[in-house]
Write a structure and sequence with these properties.
The complex is a heterodimer of chains A (301) and B (200). Chain A has one domain. In chain A, 71% of the residues lie in helices and 0% in strands. Chain A has eight helices and no strands. In chain B, 29% of the residues lie in helices and 37% in strands. The longest helix of chain B has 29 residues, at 14-42. The chains are: A mainly alpha (301), B alpha+beta (200). At the A-B interface, helix 3, helix 4 and helix 7 of A face helix 1 of B.
Chain lengths: 301, 200
């Protein structure tokens, strides 16, 4: 009979301090906050009638359009400032994202692509491909260009860095679209809130793909058509979302007086971003685990 | 800016460099495809033919077509256009042997002045069609009120163009009407109709 020696007062293993901001946690909080606020507005307007259905107050609309930015500043940016190793350049990427959206994407959409004149009259696949080849691709290419020619490759040392920067540039993009919708249309507060959530969630969801492909180009050993494949996939997801959004909003039997159900569009946008967060987190964790097994570290030196 | 972004002048690998080049190439190709899709969708047309009137022309696909009226041979309207349904129309008028195109326009002028609100002729120009047929073009405008008074909407300013061609004892009037803000954007549809119009 043999005994293994047992230490009565074993030395405590020091808990590893994570020096970076946890991107998934803070981003999920932002999504949750925006979703809850929009959902509350829907409840108060459509279900309880506490907010007038025709409320078009410009200050309220601007406030809801800026909500994603405020949530990002509170959770992500403040979290970054508090981290031991903060990621630099997020504010610059955010501003550039907004600038390219306002200076390139919006004029292209309004003056060249004019989607409202032809896309809604296409069939499902026509809408998907039409949106993908015009607005979807433009948005993803511009996000790619902002990241590729600013923070890439130096600031993208870990895979999750790509997610942090991709979410930020997508948010800059979304804020511009949200503000334009709030300021330049006669939409009600509820319609603006639903649109804000839809734009934010879909832009971030597609942007994550581009962020992953960019960071993998820095860290991994992808083929020479890696980025084109990423652009294709990200814009395809955008196109699919646009196609399904049309179906989700106007189909079904329990429709309102205007024969539409915008809350289903909100559910679709939420489903998309939740699915993308889970998928990307899984892919990144798997890739990091493989990298740690192979090299003993999860970042490129 | 250097505070925000690090020095980007770093040696790229072969793969990284070619990914960047191919991304730019792809941007050009995809945007070309997108604009082509848009153009083919906007310019998709269907052939309309009326054997009795001896007219064949291409009108936009998915527009509402009416050819069952005594007032016109064909009328095509864009059902999705707001606030005014873009209109293309071909009609015929019987005229005497000495009639000139401008006489036809005079008649239309008199009729419209009493039918259309705030009707004004903007210009008249003579032109020659692609096959050498002489024609006259009239540009005009009027306002259209919403028929339902409960909708409380402002009047819509409509711009229109007529092209008149004489054919034996008939005058062919080809018309385009559109809300003033979209008039120039959709004028190409009228020009397409004119270019594809066959009289037999």
């Amino acid at each position: 009979m043999s005994f293994e020696p047992i230490l009565l007062t074993p030395e405590e293993e020091p808990e590893e301090i994570f020096p970076y901001r946890r991107v998934w946690r803070t981003s999920s909080l932002e999504v949750l906050v925006v979703f809850l606020v929009v959902f509350m507005i829907w409840l108060l307007t459509d279900l309880f009638g506490m907010l007038p259905a025709d409320l078009t107050d410009i200050r309220a609309k601007t406030g809801i359009a800026l909500l994603p930015l405020a949530a990002w500043l509170v959770f992500s940016y403040r979290g970054e400032r508090r981290a031991l190793k903060p990621r630099f350049g997020l504010i610059g990427v955010l501003i550039l994202g907004g600038l390219v959206a306002n200076g390139i994407a919006v004029p292209l959409e309004e003056r060249v692509f004019t989607p409202e004149r032809w896309l809604p009259y296409q069939g499902f696949f026509g809408r998907v491909l039409g949106y993908m080849f015009t607005i979807g691709f433009t948005a993803e290419f511009l996000k790619y260009a902002v990241l590729r020619y600013t923070v890439w490759p130096q600031r993208l040392e870990r895979r999750v860095d790509g997610m942090a920067f991709a979410i930020t540039v997508s948010l800059g993009f979304a804020v511009v679209y949200n503000l334009r919708f709030a300021l330049y249309t006669d939409a009600t507060l509820l319609a603006t809130a639903l649109r804000v959530a839809s734009i934010m969630f879909s832009q971030i969801a597609a942007g994550l793909i581009m962020g992953y492909f960019l960071v993998e180009l820095r860290i991994g050993h992808p083929p020479i058509f890696w980025i084109p494949a990423g652009l294709f996939l990200a814009s395809f997801i955008s196109g699919l979302y646009y196609g399904f959004r049309g179906i989700a909003i106007v189909s079904g039997l329990n429709v309102g007086a205007d024969a539409s159900s915008p809350v289903r569009g909100l559910a679709l946008a939420l489903g998309l971003i939740v699915m993308m967060y889970i998928t990307m987190a899984f892919i990144i964790e798997s890739a990091d685990t493989r990298m740690i097994t192979r090299t003993g570290r999860r970042e490129e030196l | 800016m250097s505070d925000f972004f690090p020095d980007i002048h770093r040696e790229l690998t072969f793969t990284q460099r070619w990914n960047s080049y191919l991304a730019l190439v792809m941007a050009g190709v995809v945007l070309f495809l997108g604009i082509s899709m848009r153009s083919s969708s906007l310019n998709a047309a269907q052939v309309f033919e009326n054997q009795e009137a001896g007219i064949r022309a291409q009108v936009p696909l998915n527009w509402l077509i009416d050819s069952k009226s005594d007032e016109y041979v064909i009328r095509a309207e864009d059902p999705n256009a707001l606030p005014f349904k873009t209109l293309l129309q071909v009609s015929t008028l019987t005229v005497g042997p000495d009639a000139a195109p401008r006489n036809v326009l005079d008649i239309l002028d008199i009729q419209r002045a009493s039918q259309l609100s705030a009707y004004r002729v903007i210009s008249r120009t003579e032109e020659t069609l692609r096959d050498g047929t002489p024609a006259i073009r009239m540009h005009y405008a009027y306002t259209q009120d919403e028929r339902n008074p409960f909708l409380e909407s402002l009047p819509v300013v409509v711009e229109g163009v007529d092209v008149v061609i004489l054919r034996r004892s008939q005058a062919l009037v080809i018309t385009y009407r559109e809300e003033q803000n979209s008039f120039d954007d959709n004028l190409y549809r009228f020009e397409n109709l004119l270019q594809t119009l066959e009289i037999f």
